[in-house]
Amino acid sequence: MITLALSKGRIFDETLPLLAAAGIEVLEDPEKSRKLILPTNQPNVRVVLVRATDVPTYVEYGGADIGVTGKDTLIEHGGQGLYQPLDLRIAQCRVSVAVRSDFDYAQAVRKGSRLKVATKYTSIARDFFATKGVHVDMVKLYGSMELAPLTGLADAIVDLVSTGNTLRANHLVEVERIMDISSHLVVNQAALKLKQAPLRRIIDAFASAIPPENN
Ligand code: ATP
Ligand code: PRP
């Protein structure tokens, strides 16, 4: 049995064409079913639905053999115990710094200054501001980061941006792009040895179906 970990929403949706290339069809719609283990048309392949941030953990500990996860999540997890064979180029976005439009960011990030940053991405944010020589007071959040500068919780946020609509709707401006993000295939290293043939087949099929670069 091969167990594939996916999160509901964009990762599930954007992985479906890659699964199709491997001849795998998920037999239930996660938006309609309450089931967390979904069968596929291949009796030896199943999908487990987990929180996006839990995908690397499931694969690391063997709760799943293989999974699809954002590079953002992978960096925060650390990537230990994970073979990362493919950038799938799906769920593309970026990690950026954003502030209120009336906040003087250039002044706030002078070398040696202090900045209050709210984010779910504490590891990415810490590394980024460390290379700039800016001291950071980190506020860890799990969602709705955009609220933090509006309520005085923080000066800046580090969050995902795609169209920029969420920032605009909340009167925030993107002041720095930290890194481009896409989703990657991750594989449990022990499973790769024990279930080499079926996993290789899936990896190769995914590789053949990666969308072309759009820039
Ligand atoms: P959790 O459920 O664990 O809190 P989440 O709500 O961030 O995670 P998703 O919104 O499904 O879960 O995001 C999953 C991944 O998709 C992110 O880790 C990121 O790599 C990518 N992603 C998030 N937002 C966007 C977006 N607006 N456009 C493109 N890709 C995105
Ligand atoms: C993500 C991310 C941003 C938004 C950015 O949220 O956390 O808030 O997308 O995309 P945009 O620049 O196109 O507006 P998502 O839509 O996944 O909502 P959720 O994480 O709160 O479910």
Describe it.
With 215 residues, the chain is an alpha/beta fold. The chain has two domains: 2-91 and 182-209, 3-Layer(aba) Sandwich (D-Maltodextrin-Binding Protein, domain 2), CATH 3.40.190; 93-180, D-Maltodextrin-Binding Protein, domain 2, CATH 3.40.190.10. 32% of the residues lie in helices and 31% in strands. The chain contains nine helices and eleven strands. The protein has helices spanning 10-21, 55-60, 71-77, 105-108, 122-132, 147-151, 165-169, 189-194, 196-208; strands at residues 2-6, 37-39, 45-49, 66-70, 82-87, 93-100, 114-119, 135-140, 156-161, 172-181, 183-188. The strands form two sheets. The chain has a six-stranded mixed beta sheet with strand order 2-3-1-4-11-5. A five-stranded mixed beta sheet has the order 8-7-9-6-10. Strand 7 (114-119), helix 5 and strand 8 (135-140) form a beta-alpha-beta unit. The longest helix has 13 residues, at 196-208. The protein is elongated and about 60 Å long. The relative contact order is 0.20. The model has no long low-confidence stretch (mean pLDDT 96). The site of adenosine-5'-triphosphate (ATP) has 17 residues, from helix 1 and helix 3.
Structural class: alpha/beta
Count, helices: 9
Shape: elongated
Q: Report how far the terminal alpha carbons are from each other.
A: 38 Å
CATH class of the largest domain: Alpha Beta
Proportion of helical residues: 25-40%
- Characterize the main sheet: 6 strands, mixed
Structure summary, number of beta strands: 11
What does this entry show, briefly?
It is built from nine helices and eleven strands. It is of the alpha/beta class and 215 residues long.
